[in-house]
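2024-03-11 09:14:02 INFO worker-7 job=invfold-0412 stage=load source=structure_tokens
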């Protein structure tokens, strides 16, 4: 099974509960199709780089999962059918992207090296 990452932007007109229901709907499609969800990250309401459907903000949600290739077509068809989804992007991850995401989740990029810690202690 290939590992994928899918980002969706939901319309900002939704309440928090409806946005969560929408995300749960897509998670159910994935799990029923035989996918294993590796990680999720809800970015919340963010400003868009450019207006989409005359809206300047949207709810962002990222899902990382392992799935068979034919499931992606079904998932993206559901994205297109759902009027609450303004944009989506699903990409297949290579071994470098998978390793990067694992390091990011473990907090390897948030750690400061010892020189920076000593400099802050002196200040």
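2024-03-11 09:14:09 INFO worker-7 stage=emit residues=123
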């Amino acid at each position: 099974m290939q590992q994928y990452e899918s980002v969706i932007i939901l319309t900002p007109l939704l309440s928090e509960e409806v946005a969560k229901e929408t995300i749960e709907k897509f998670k159910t499609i994935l799990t029923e199709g035989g996918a294993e969800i590796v990680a999720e990250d809800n970015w919340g309401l963010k400003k868009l780089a450019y207006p989409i459907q005359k809206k300047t903000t949207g709810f962002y949600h990222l899902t990382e999962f392992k799935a068979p290739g034919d499931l992606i077509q079904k998932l993206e068809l559901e994205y297109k059918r759902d009027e609450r989804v303004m944009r989506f992007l699903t990409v297949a991850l290579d071994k470098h992207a998978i390793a990067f995401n694992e390091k990011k989740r473990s907090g390897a990029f948030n750690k400061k090296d010892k020189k920076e810690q000593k400099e802050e202690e002196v200040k």
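2024-03-11 09:14:09 INFO worker-7 stage=report msg="Residues 2-92 form a domain with the Alpha-Beta Plaits fold (CATH 3.30.70.60)."
2024-03-11 09:14:10 INFO worker-7 job finished
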